[in-house]
Amino acid sequence: MSEIEIGEYVRTVEGYIDIFKDINDEGNIVRCKKRKYWLNSIVKHSKNIIDLIEVGDYVNGDEVLDKYLFAGETPVLETSGNSINCKCLCNDDIKSIVTKEIFERESYKVGK
Fold first, then answer.
1. Is the pLDDT reported for residue 33 higher than 80?
2. Of 87, 77, 14, 24, which is closest to residue 48 (Cα–Cα)?
């Protein structure tokens, strides 16, 4: 993994998304805006939050169904939207994210 820069977004194996601040003196703990993580738990980092989003995550309340580059250069998310059509979102459209890992962990299963 390349070096993480201050202010970049990070995604952990547990599904947390946060903003990088620094690494401790031992080089094994990443300090971010919301909490601390083990360095080896960081799976992705980027200056653009859209790069960290995966199919199955929820963005602005809708499930991400596809992720692609529009015209070969602009990252776009296709979400479930409403029953009539899907929504296509770019980086600036993202207001909230619930990763699939967090969604699964926090979901209450009804029945057996």
1. yes
2. 77
